[in-house]
Amino acid sequence: MLVIVFICLLVPVILSVGALNLHLSRALLLLMFFPMLFSWASGKTGPVHMVDFAVFAAALWSALALIVAHGFSNAIEPVGYQIVETVGGYMVGRVLIRSPETFRSFVKINFIAIMILMPFAIIETQTGEPPIIHFFSNFVNSTKIITYEARLGLERAQVVFPHPILYGVFCAAPLGMVIYVLNFRAATPVSILRAFGVVVAAFCSVSTGAIMILSLQYLFVLYDHVTRQVKSRWLLLLAAFVFVYVAIDLASNRTPFHVFVSYLTLNQGTSYTRILIFDYGIQNVWANPIFGLGQKDWVRPFWLRPSVDNFWLLMAMRYGIPGFLLFIGSFILLIIQLAFRPFKTERMLSYRKGYLISLIGLMFALATVHIWLSAYVWFMMMLGAGVWMLDYSDDAGDQAGDAAPAGDGRGGQRARFGKAQADEPVAVAVPTSDISRYTRFPAKPGAEARAVRAPHPRKGR
After folding, report:
1. 274 and 338 share a domain?
2. How many whole angstroms separate alpha carbon 367 and alpha carbon 365?
3. Does one domain contain both 196 and 108?
4. Distances (CA, A) of 316 to 33, 53, 204, 361
5. Distance (Å, rounded) from C-alpha 331 to C-alpha 185?
6. Interatomic CA distance for residues 46 and 44, integer angstroms
7. Which pick of 97, 223, 386, 393 has the fewest CB atoms within 10 Å?
8. CA pair distance 396, 54, nearest whole angstrom
9. Helix, strand, or coil here: 128?
């Protein structure tokens, strides 16, 4: 089913249903919405979590904000899209990904999709024409082709998305998961090639947001490697970030946001525009703090472009401060809950690390870009894809060959019917490497673990 989801996300076909123009991702979510919601409500996807309520509350508040801004009759269509894409996208990850195996499949399918699109992106950087969109445009209604000024001598690749930045975000964000999930034990030539492929694909968008996501994730990976022997190293990193933020705020005549944007963008003219958009956008937020503007035009100078290159700012502008807090709060809530989950096995520790690195890198980058349509659905699916970790326990040992040896309190096979009777022989699982301890002869190479019958305990006379 995950394969079908990614196909619908990435095939640039728009279906005309009456007066509605439905992208394939929206059409699929409409079909899956109520079955997924029923599966969640019936408890088939595990217990209900606070992040579930946060996502539902964000969707409902944004729907209410749209109704307040536009009236009920005019808001029906945008409200429907908002709820389906927000809750539906989240539910795809929440319902379909419920185990380490399905999570790894999700990451693998995402990586394969990136690699399939990469050759077309490379072609587009040289020609400026997206071959896939051109192909589908000959037969059906497809995504509009846009042209932007070249950067670094390369045309910006949109591939199958409405904008190059969306393609860049889609390729860049999974980097942490590709590194830590697809090969969690140690770096190999194959894992290095995978990471390099993700970087090349994302760079074809020639987008500041994509490069920021890549840079942040690589910094996290490097920090993790250098400080792997340091206890509470992630709390130390958080403290260092807060210290740097406060120091910049005190020492500079600009806000930390202005400083970061000015240094992290490829084009200084673009960074200046982003700062102006942020300043005027905040003024619109304070003018409409509760319900926001909805989809109305925002107040700005006539010469400033209407697009807002900041996802979190746009959430506050459209749906008010409560809407913004609910959206970003759902992500922060999941990150905090996962950070304190007591995982023990190497696989689960690595899976969590890769997921959080990808999610945090994406959250930071969305302060400089906006995402919509299929990219937004994928973004919400990314959030739902990590909720299974809140329900997963690896105390009994990891089932992918990462189980702890018997007797260390983490692994081993537990008695099915409670305590064994004193007169009953007990079967003890003996690892191959320990067979020589129970015989006079060394274990033969390749010998399998066998069961050794423990002697009866002596009865008192």
Report:
1. yes
2. 5
3. yes
4. 26, 19, 30, 20
5. 27
6. 6
7. 393
8. 31
9. coil
Q: What is the rounded distance in angstroms from the CA atom of residue 431 to the CA atom of residue 408? A: 14
Integer-rounded Cα radius of gyration of the chain: 26
pTM score of the predicted model: 0.82
Do both 362 and 459 map to the same domain? Answer: no
Which amino acid type is present at position 263? Y
State the Cα–Cα distance between residues 299 and 284, nearest whole angstrom.
7
- Alpha-carbon dihedral angle through residues 286, 360, 217, 390, given to the nearest 10 degrees: 180
Give the residue carrying structure tokens 């079908």.
Answer: 4
- Total domains in the chain come to 2
Query: Which of 390, 423, 445 is the endpoint of a domain?
Result: 390
Would you say how long the chain is, in residues?
461
Q: Within a 13 Å sphere around the CA of 79, how many CA atoms are in the beta-carbon half?
A: 16
Q: How far is CA 340 from CA 232, 343, 349, 382, 389, in A?
A: 11, 9, 11, 19, 11
Q: Beta-carbon neighbour count of residue 317 at 10 Å?
A: 25
Map tokens 């509760």 to a residue: 290
Q: Which residue, 6, 26, 23, is CA-closest to 15?
A: 23
Residue 225 CA neighbour count, 13 Å, CB half:
11
Residue pLDDT tens, the chain, 461 long: 899 999 999 999 998 887 788 899 999 999 999 999 999 999 888 899 999 999 999 999 999 999 999 999 999 999 999 999 999 999 999 999 999 999 999 999 999 999 999 999 999 999 989 999 999 999 988 999 888 888 888 999 999 999 999 999 999 999 999 999 998 766 778 888 999 999 999 999 998 889 889 999 999 999 998 998 888 888 899 999 899 888 887 887 777 777 777 666 656 667 778 888 999 999 999 999 999 999 999 999 988 888 898 999 999 999 999 999 999 999 999 999 999 998 889 899 999 999 999 999 999 889 888 999 999 999 999 999 999 999 988 775 444 444 433 333 333 333 333 333 444 444 444 444 443 433 434 444 444 444 444 444 444 44
Same domain? For 295 and 441 the reply is no
**Which residue range(s) make up the domain with 76?**
2-390
396 lies in some domain: no
